Predict the structure.
Amino acid sequence: MTKTAEDFNKSGNAWLDKGDFDKAIEDFDKVIELNPKYKEASDNRDRVLKKKEGG
């Protein structure tokens, strides 16, 4: 079964909850690749990047 943008967004959030920022970013990147207008994924990715940078 092919994963949808929503599937990748959910798994990105799960990785974020586990503290695996790199895997979260990979999944949010995939969401944006599949659906560039998926604002929630862009916001989530920005949030992860800030956390990764210590913010």
In short: The chain has a mean pLDDT of 95. The chain is about 75% helix and 0% strand. The radius of gyration is 10 Å. The chain has one domain: 5-52.
